[in-house]
Amino acid sequence: MRSKNRFFTGLILLILLITSCDNNGQSAKKLTSLSQVNSSQNLTQKPINQFAWRPIKHDPSKRYIYLTFDDGPQNGTTACLELIKKLNVKATFFMVGSHANSDNLAKLVREAKADYPQILLANHSTSHANNRYKFFYHHPAMAAKDFYLAQNKLKVPYKIIRLPGNSAWVIDGSTKATSLVKPVCHLLDSSGYNVIGWDVEWSFNHKTAYPVQRPYKIAEQVDSALSRNHVHTKNHVVILSHDRMFRKDNFTDSLAKFITILKKDPRNVFETIDHYPGLRF
Comparing C-alpha atoms, which of 227, 229, 80, 68 is closest to residue 163? Predict the structure, then answer.
């Protein structure tokens, strides 16, 4: 009788032990699953900084095209923004603080900024020197302050500037500029700004603001500048244009043709100016 009782008692203990182990295994699985869920939630909850700059590795067999538009927001900016997105290329818009003087124009600034990394918003001053360039640059402290104000007003993400009416370069502490603008370039450099000039200009008629060169002609100029190394940095070409040049449909079409011509060459890569070599961030 005692032996039977011992047998049943042992059997019950064995069943309880197996059940306990199984429950512990299930609990461990539940804990592991819960940990994975929490980990996944933590990952998705981390804010993504849209403007956290990421370097790119430049391919020496490629030719980098930096298509830039000056003086926006203005009549023509919308057409340029829409076309750049439609053709799936990259471009940089150097905008002027005082031009964002209405809700609609300020909205264009926000749209350009929101479309990064395809479109980059950059600094083209607050006043555009009021088109009095000599006076502006003869007062370098005043000129530098004009750029700082634009940086804040437009909420420009990076310290990248183009001087109004003058092609100057300040990259990685090295300055290439005329004597007129060197003083303000040194001030901007000391404040950590990069200054970007241009290699090829798509000119416009100053009375009508219509483009001067035809699309194939400006494309030839770009190809020649790259082939002959008539650029600030080898295999990198910065193209200057202005938003207002393309405000009419026929000239928007000219811009589309120009971009299409460049895209046909597999060596050509469109990039925003923040990926120009040597910039400081």
Answer: 68
Residue 179 belongs to a domain: yes
pLDDT band (50, 70, 90) for residue 146: very high
Helix orientation angle between 103-114 and 77-87, rounded to the nearest 10 degrees: 20
pLDDT tens sequence across 2-15: 444 555 555 444 44
Q: Would 75 be classed as within a structural domain?
A: yes
**In this structure, is residue 244 part of a structural domain?**
yes
C-alpha 256/C-alpha 9 separation (Å) is: 88
- CATH number for the domain spanning 186: value is 3.20.20.370
Cα angle 145, 148, 151 (rounded to 5 degrees) comes to 155
Domain count within the chain: 1
